[in-house]
Amino acid sequence: MAEEIFQTYTDGKSSNGSEKKELSEITRQLDNCMNAILQGADFPELNEKMARLRVRKAELEEILAMSPEIILTPQIIAKKLKKDAQLLRDGDIARLIKSYLTKIYAHSDEIIITGGVNMNHCGRRI
């Protein structure tokens, strides 16, 4: 099973790929908002949206700056799966779920949950 997961990971995902993609989309949205403002748009919702986008952009830039490139091997995956199986056997479901949540952001109108594999609870993500 670890070999299959490793193959899936190496077939199309680079480290921090989802964060990089989201950062690119947020940058595009911020540019669109700025263009709208430059063309005369003046809505409170637009300013609120820009503020949220700026916060998320800063969060993503921090994640990308602090995330070392992780070398993933079938052995690392097997170790993680064994640890997960032990948590299941112990009935520690909350700890198991927490190990797959990397960030939770709460805004006034939405909650953003970022999932992945939180290695050693120190922010290293796969």
Walk me through what this model shows:
The two termini are 17 Å apart. β3 (118-119) and β4 form a beta hairpin. With 126 residues, the protein is mainly alpha-helical. It has a two-stranded antiparallel sheet. The protein has a two-stranded antiparallel ribbon with strand order 3-4. α1 crosses α4 (74-90) and α2 (17-38) runs antiparallel to α3 (44-66). Residues 120-126 have low confidence and may be disordered. The chain has a domain at 2-9 and 16-91. It has helices at 2-12, 17-38, 44-66, 74-90, 93-98; strands spanning 101-106, 111-115, 118-119, 124-125. The chain has 5 helices and 4 strands.
Question: How is the main sheet built?
Answer: 2 strands, antiparallel
* SSE ordering: HHHHHEEEE
Structural class: mainly alpha
* Number of β-strand runs: 4
Q: Measure the end-to-end span.
A: 17 Å
Assign a percent range to the helix content: 55-70%
Q: What is the gyration radius calculated from CA atoms?
A: 18 Å
Based on Cα principal axes, name the global outline.
elongated
The number of distinct helices, counting runs of at least 4 residues, comes to 5
Share in β-strands: 5-15%
What does the average pLDDT come to? 80
Stretches where pLDDT is under 50 for at least 5 consecutive residues are: 120-126
* Strand order, largest beta sheet: 1-2
